[in-house]
Amino acid sequence: MSKPFILGLTGSIGMGKSAVAGMLRELGVPVFDADAAVHELQGPDGACLAPIERAFPGTTGALGVDRQKLGAAVFGHPDKLKLLESIVHPEVAEMRRTFLADNAEAPLIVFDIPLLYEKTGQHGLDAVAVVSAPGPIQRERVLARPGMSIEKFEKILALQVPDGEKRARADFVIDTGVQVGETRAQIDALVAHLRENGPWPPPK
């Protein structure tokens, strides 16, 4: 039995990655959401709750991890962030292995990884698709979010690999700066291509 083709899906803040992941699911593509996995692990009864409380006392409660308190505990402390990652990352990897096993017969699987280029890398992926849109559209989307400010947006951008570099490094680019129907057509074509032919030639 041939193994599934594994596509990494990533993109900077405000680029529409979640919407693209939803469109992929509508086409029957199994999508593993790394952020959702972390939320589950840090939620009520999550596997990471007790070890996080031991490492960072007072940062958890009945509803799971208090993300503001935990963020304050690790922000600006690389050693503490590394400790947190050593707790969370192995658990995410185990959930990913289970997801792969559960979908072993699918021709195509997508790993939704927000910080693919910043942190996790491309290990275990057959190709990477970057979700992208022009800068002014990205800015408009992000600043429309509740609680967002220009300063916060710029700080987030400074921590992310620039969109142009992501596009250059990706095997596929999905443009969300166009009409939704056009984006959906790109995804339809990409899924059909990967299910039938594998990664090359990449339709950039």
Show the helix and strand layout.
Elements: E1 5-10, H1 17-26, E2 31-33, H2 34-42, H3 49-55, E3 60-61, E4 64-65, H4 67-74, H5 78-102, E5 108-112, H6 116-120, E6 127-132, H7 135-143, H8 150-159, H9 163-169, E7 172-175, H10 180-197
Parallel strand pairs: 1-5, 1-6, 2-5, 6-7
Antiparallel strand pairs: 3-4
Helix pairs in contact: 2-5
Provide key terms for this protein.
10 helices; five-stranded parallel sheet; disordered C terminus; single chain; alpha/beta; 204 residues; globular; Rossmann fold
CA radius of gyration: 18 Å
Report on the biggest sheet: 5 strands, parallel
- Mean pLDDT equals 90
Order of helices and strands: EHEHHEEHHEHEHHHEH
**What structural class do the secondary elements suggest?**
alpha/beta
- Stretches with pLDDT under 50, minimum 5 residues: 200-204
- What is the assigned CATH homologous superfamily of the largest domain? P-loop containing nucleotide triphosphate hydrolases
CATH class descriptor of the largest domain: Alpha Beta
Report how far the terminal alpha carbons are from each other: 30 Å
CATH structural architecture of the largest domain? 3-Layer(aba) Sandwich
Strand order of the largest sheet: 2-5-1-6-7
Shape: globular
According to CATH, the fold-level topology of the largest domain is Rossmann fold
